[in-house]
Specification:
Length: about 210
């Protein structure tokens, strides 16, 4: 059970815009590189990228890049490179789901990107992510609004970005299309909230 997601989802009662992305793409293959192009005229200064794993660039529970996404992944890796890239997964690198870091180590080896070791699952690990980049001077990250989070879940990946004060790119369809009714409802939620006038707030320096 993801206690972090359960507790943080309660924040949506007062701030429903926390689950709204700043940009939406169908699949990882549609991710613009550089990522600043995803946000249109806002053109933020994206210095670092956080990637979700499951159903974002990989088949759930697999620790390799989904083959049709190889070229896009290589392009992203070429443009940003570690320490500007970080994988943050709730299945690899967490003390509960991956206590021996077996999956995190394999994933990092297969992708060439470090995997965050975190005790609190998304969306509650924002402080650890920001500390990771701030402690790597060559990342040139000085504020959370210089980070973009890419993932397929509104209540973990997008909320993580919102709570951090970072930019959110929502991968709407993912690698595997699920028939889960909750996920179908989740996919429709942004359009519903936007019809009621809600919008994702623009991240600001120090915000």
């Amino acid at each position: 059970m993801n206690v972090s997601a359960t507790l943080n989802t309660l924040r949506l009662l007062g701030r429903p815009w926390l689950c709204l992305p700043h940009a939406t793409i169908p699949t990882f293959n549609d991710l613009p590189v550089p990522l600043s192009d995803a946000f249109g005229t806002l053109n933020p200064n994206i210095r670092a990228v956080v990637l979700d794993k499951d159903n974002c660039f990989a088949v759930p529970k697999e620790n390799v890049v989904y083959k049709p996404y190889t070229d896009k992944f290589t392009s992203l890796l070429h443009h940003y490179k570690p320490p500007h890239l970080l994988i943050v997964s709730n299945s690899a690198g967490t003390t509960t789901s991956d206590p021996s870091s077996t999956h995190a180590s394999l994933l990092s080896r297969n992708t060439g990107i470090p995997v965050l070791q975190h005790s609190t699952k998304k969306p509650g690990c924002g402080a650890q992510i920001l500390a990771h980049f701030l402690n790597a001077p060559s990342s040139h990250v000085t504020s959370a609004n210089q980070i973009a989070v890419v993932g397929d879940r509104l209540f973990t990946d997008v909320m993580l970005a919102s709570l951090m004060g970072s930019w959110a790119v929502w991968v709407r369809d993912g690698v595997v299309k699920s028939r889960n009714p909750f996920l179908a409802w989740e996919r429709e939620l942004p359009a519903t909230l936007e019809r009621f006038g809600f919008r994702a707030p623009v991240p600001r320096a120090g915000g």
